[in-house]
Amino acid sequence: MKILITGANGLLGQNAVRQLAAAGHQIIATGRGACRLPDAGMSFDYTEMDLTDRQRVVSAVTAIRPEVIIHAAAMSQPDACELNPEACYDCNTNATRYVTAAAASVKAKLVYISTDFVFSGDHGPYRETDIPSPVNYYGQTKWEAEQVVQQSEAGWAIVRTVLVYGNILAGTRSNVVTWVKENLEKGNPIQVVSDQVRTPTYIEDLVRGIQLVIEKKAGGIYHISGREILTPYDMAVQVADYFGLDKQLMKKVNAAIFSQPARRPLKTGFIIDKAEKELGYSPVGFREGIQKMFPLP
Ligand SMILES: NC(=O)c1ccc[n+]([C@@H]2O[C@H](COP(=O)([O-])OP(=O)(O)OC[C@H]3O[C@@H](n4cnc5c(N)ncnc54)[C@H](OP(=O)(O)O)[C@@H]3O)[C@@H](O)[C@H]2O)c1
Question: Which domains does the chain have, with CATH numbers?
Answer without folding.
Answer: 2-162+202-223 (3.40.50.720), 165-199+228-270+284-293 (3.90.25.10)
